[in-house]
């Protein structure tokens, strides 16, 4: 994205995400999944929406007034120990579409990922930067 200057002469930079929204079909079921299965901290509810804290980003899950297409957005969660998280979530009944696997060898670490879906079919990814011994 190129730098752009506003009418006040200040450069505009989109370099920080404050909130991500996901549409769900069953808010109660989705709240249970994000709170109890993924361990996210609930913040507040507002109408047909529920908000969670995820690091510095707020996650909004909510039912849409009109049907919306799903599957285009992927959330990537940074995980310290991908194997332990995978085993724990699998034991909790989470269905994975890809088990932990090596994605890239970086100069000082290896990048591993695993993918799964929430109850509405939204794709979620775990990523882990594993230092080399």
Structure commentary:
This protein is of the alpha+beta class and 133 residues long. It folds into two domains: 17-66, 2,3-Dihydroxybiphenyl 1,2-Dioxygenase, domain 1; 69-133, 2,3-Dihydroxybiphenyl 1,2-Dioxygenase, domain 1 (Roll), CATH 3.10.180. Helix content is 16%, strand content 45%. The protein has helices spanning 27-37, 82-91; strands at residues 4-5, 11-12, 19-23, 41-46, 49-54, 57-62, 74-78, 96-105, 109-117, 123-131. The strands form three sheets. Strands 3-6-5-4 form a four-stranded mixed sheet, with helices on one face. It has a four-stranded mixed sheet with strand order 7-10-9-8. It has a two-stranded antiparallel sheet with strand order 1-2. The longest helix has 11 residues, at 27-37. It starts with a strand and ends with a strand.
Series of H and E elements: EEEHEEEEHEEE
Helix count, DSSP H or I runs of 4 or more residues: 2
Evaluate the radius of gyration: 17 Å
Largest sheet, strands/sense/barrel: 4 strands, mixed
CATH class of the largest domain: Alpha Beta
Low-confidence stretches: 1-6
Strand order of the largest sheet: 3-6-5-4
Look at the structure and name the CATH superfamily of the largest domain.
2,3-Dihydroxybiphenyl 1,2-Dioxygenase, domain 1
Annotated CATH architecture of the largest domain: Roll
Number of strands: 10
Tell me the structural class: alpha+beta
């Amino acid at each position: 994205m190129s730098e752009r200057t506003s009418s006040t002469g200040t450069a505009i930079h989109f370099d920080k995400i404050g909130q991500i929204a996901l549409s769900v079909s069953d808010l109660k079921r989705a709240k249970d999944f994000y709170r109890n299965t993924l361990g996210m901290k609930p913040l507040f509810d507002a109408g047909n929406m529920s908000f969670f804290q995820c690091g510095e980003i707020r996650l909004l899950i909510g039912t849409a007034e009109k049907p919306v297409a799903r599957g285009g957005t992927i959330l990537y969660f940074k995980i310290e120990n991908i194997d332990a998280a995978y085993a724990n979530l699998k034991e909790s009944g989470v269905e994975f579409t890809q088990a932990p696997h090596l994605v890239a060898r970086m100069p000082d670490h290896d990048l591993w990922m695993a993918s799964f879906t929430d109850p509405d079919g939204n794709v979620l990814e775990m990523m882990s930067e594993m230092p080399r011994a």
